[in-house]
Amino acid sequence: MSKTFRIVQGDPAAGGGMEYGAHQCQRIWKAVLAQACKDASYIGNKDREGLEAQRAQNYLLSGSLDLQLVCELADVNIERVTKWARKCKAENDWKRESFLWSRPRQTGVKRNTKYRKRR
Which one has a higher pLDDT value, 113 or 57? Predict the structure, then answer.
């Protein structure tokens, strides 16, 4: 039996909220990590955005309890995140490909595609 999570908006007594499976929740938390990577890579001339980029970089480098929790919920190894962030910092290249998408491709996976027959 898979885990489900209930996200409640409004009055729970009135039946407010939606249920999400574990896989859907992982996708949400991976999106949080992806946004942090995107924020860390911001290069611009506005002070506020530069400050946000610095905060995102520090967050990804920190290994904080908050980052550990997000990684656990996203089912991503925190060592992978911090290693990627350290490499970005060392090379001063926060635009590099994110650790979330740098996995080797799966081979032999069939996709659910249908082909139209030509007449």
Answer: 57
